[in-house]
Design brief:
alpha/beta, seven-stranded mixed sheet, 38% helix, 324 residues, five-stranded mixed sheet
Length: 324
């Protein structure tokens, strides 16, 4: 069943507002919360209009007074226009503000590059004390909203816009713990977000048919990062491939490369958006395919890397980054 992660967040927040008196919902006129929702939430819902910097400052003030605000805005504006307030007012003071950022990645593809959020994970994961989460489906979103009640400090959650398919049966998602969706000893496929995770699962099926077994990791939490699970999967593998709806620099691929480089000599190849602004307007699905964030690209990347390593290997060389 397909369902939008932003709608899963909205629908799961209302009962929490009614259950937990310290929670607040602060909106920036996103259109996600209609009059019926506002009426049900009562004075726990405030629409502050399109003023993202003020939104973060007010949320910080409320959090400093004992409230726990859920702040709703688009990812592109949260991590650029309002970044100073997030850094100084929220993160610096370690305040429990929950930044629920919709239209993550290419989800606002119909609005052009000004509304793309292809740098948000890089920006947010370097802020000290900031928890950064990317749900891959609606069920994970609901789980993370519930778990946020017990998280210290600030939280950034990247949400989509349109419905995306549910993941196949998997272990329950837990903030800070990678999900192992498939086990295999040859390569590791690591991703985050709905389209990349589904693409890696599909790629693993294709590779299995070619005799290559892949471990598939849903690295939904970029901070705190589950280095232990990643390194355990990467240690016996000859290759780690990352796929993300983000520029290649600084996001999931950067986090994976940093962790692997410090622990195991396994080669890491990062797949993501090219180092350019999006010059094509279209739906998220169109742009994901246009920029080849696909299962087919993952398969090509794995096969090319393994075939090249096999061709260059010769007896006596035991470097695990080059042997077949």
């Amino acid at each position: 069943m397909s369902r939008a992660t932003r709608e899963a967040y909205r629908d799961s927040l209302l009962p929490l507002l009614q259950r937990c008196p310290e929670l607040m919902c602060l909106d920036s006129d996103t259109g996600l919360f209609d009059a019926e929702y506002a009426e049900a939430a009562g004075d726990r819902y405030l629409n502050l209009g399109i003023a993202e910097h003020n939104l973060m400052g007010i949320a910080a003030g409320m959090a400093a007074c004992g409230r726990v605000p859920f702040v709703n805005t688009m990812a592109a504006f949260a991590t650029s226009r309002a970044l100073e307030a997030i850094k100084i007012d929220i993160a610096y003071n370690r305040l429990p503000v929950r930044i629920m950022a919709t239209h993550g990645g290419l989800a606002a593809g119909h609005l052009g590059p000004t509304h793309q959020a292809l740098e948000d994970l890089a920006v947010m994961r370097v802020l000290p004390g900031m928890t950064v989460v990317v749900p891959a489906d609606a069920a994970a979103t609901e789980a993370f909203v519930e778990q946020s009640l017990n998280l210290p400090g600030p939280l950034y959650v990247r949400l989509g816009r349109k419905p995306t398919p549910a993941l196949p049966a998997a272990p329950p998602p837990v903030v800070g713990k990678a999900q192992t969706l498939r086990q295999g000893g040859d390569v590791v496929l690591a991703s985050c977000g709905p389209y990349p995770v589904l693409a890696c699962l599909a790629a693993a099926d294709v590779l299995a048919g070619q005799g290559i077994e892949a471990t598939v990791l849903n690295m939904h939490t970029l901070r705190p990062f589950d280095t232990q699970t990643l390194v355990a999967a990467a240690r016996p593998a000859s290759l780690v491939v990352t796929l993300e709806e983000h520029w290649r620099g600084g996001g999931l691929g950067g986090a994976v490369a940093e962790a692997v480089a410090e622990a195991v000599p396994t080669r890491v190849l990062r797949l993501g958006m090219p180092d350019q602004f999006v010059d094509t307007v279209g739906s998220q699905e169109h742009l994901v395919n246009h920029y080849d964030l696909t299962a087919e690209r993952v398969v090509r990347t794995v096969r090319t890397a393994l075939d090249t390593a096999a061709a260059s290997w010769r007896p006596g060389r035991e470097d695990v980054t080059t042997r077949p």
